[in-house]
């Protein structure tokens, strides 16, 4: 979206200007900086998965419109993955929907489930697309702010309960959480589930980082908790798990009624997408546990490299329990405004980061926080750490 589009843009979206990623990526190019802003890996995922895509394309699998709900091979693989990992049983024909990435799944779910004026309770800082998705659906977002507590960002359950009103239609949950790296504990999610049941709320849960949890953190899918399967729309994606963010293969798992509602919208957004890649992702989901374990170990080592470097450079570091991202506080460096800090950082140190304030309704809450992505090659991270020592 460009600034010049604004005179024509409808009122629901005028508050959303150019995304910060466009500005910061342009800045990175102009200054020759290392771009730790946007969260995409700088190496592709497994060779055999890439080959599977080539094979599908050559064999003519998915080159024409695939079926609306997704190709059967992928829907079966998604259902098998949910069962193998979490003991969640979904019917591939009626309870699984393939989407154009998690982004379309989020938008379609919000457009399907909200009436104008419905309130959506979501964690702040928000993932980039949530606020716009809620606005497109005519909903009203109600933030519950995650705040630093004992080295990480945590949810305040009392604040969550207080945010629910008679107008609340759904909870929009994200765990592992981008940008803070928080992974909600089983106890926290149990409280979320109890609230959803008590207030009869729908839940849309964005779990695209389900495989990216570190140390002793555990990813608990909300749908596994009592009373949740029938009210939860679970969203996953191949982009982050398999390091193919350009393929845009995501999915929804839920009841036939909820999946049907989301599909009703999805058919008029993209109808279908990513034909040959769907076959490749079906193979990727069936990779042995060793793939997921070594991917996690690799990212964990990268997290440690960047976290240590950032701490040595003087940042306060909130060590993430999951995701691709480290959120820092710039105040120990004598700074207080993450925006100004990120705009100056390329000239000062040749590194690009993202000010977390853009993910907040209340920008003051997010002012001192800055996010760095660590899904980059080790030598890139090592060079970034070197440069940050100049601060
Ligand atoms: C990257 C990301 C998405 C988007 O996933 P795609 O499959 O690329 O559309 C959604 N939610 C969160 C939290 C993300 O970080």
From TrEMBL:
Cofactor(s) recorded in Swiss-Prot or TrEMBL: pyridoxal 5'-phosphate
CC terms in the record's Gene Ontology section: cytoplasm
Gene3D superfamilies: Aspartate Aminotransferase, domain 1 (3.90.1150.10), Type I PLP-dependent aspartate aminotransferase-like (Major domain) (3.40.640.10)
Keyword Transferase: yes
EC number(s) recorded for this UniProt protein: 2.6.1.17
Coiled coil: none
Main location: cytoplasm
Cellular compartments annotated: Cytoplasm
Pathway connected to this protein: Amino-acid biosynthesis; L-lysine biosynthesis via DAP pathway; LL-2,6-diaminopimelate from (S)-tetrahydrodipicolinate (succinylase route): step 2/3
Entry keyword set: Amino-acid biosynthesis, Aminotransferase, Cytoplasm, Pyridoxal phosphate, Transferase
UniProt-recorded Gene Ontology molecular function terms: kynurenine-oxoglutarate transaminase activity; pyridoxal phosphate binding; succinyldiaminopimelate transaminase activity
Function: Involved in the lysine biosynthetic pathways. It catalyzes the transfer of an amino group from L-glutamate to N-succinyl-2-l-amino-6-oxoheptanedioate (N-succinyl-2-l-amino-6-ketopimelate) in a PLP-dependent reaction, yielding as products N-succinyl-l-2,6-diaminoheptanedioate (N-succinyl-diaminopimelate) and 2-oxoglutarate.
Official protein name in the record: Probable N-succinyldiaminopimelate aminotransferase DapC
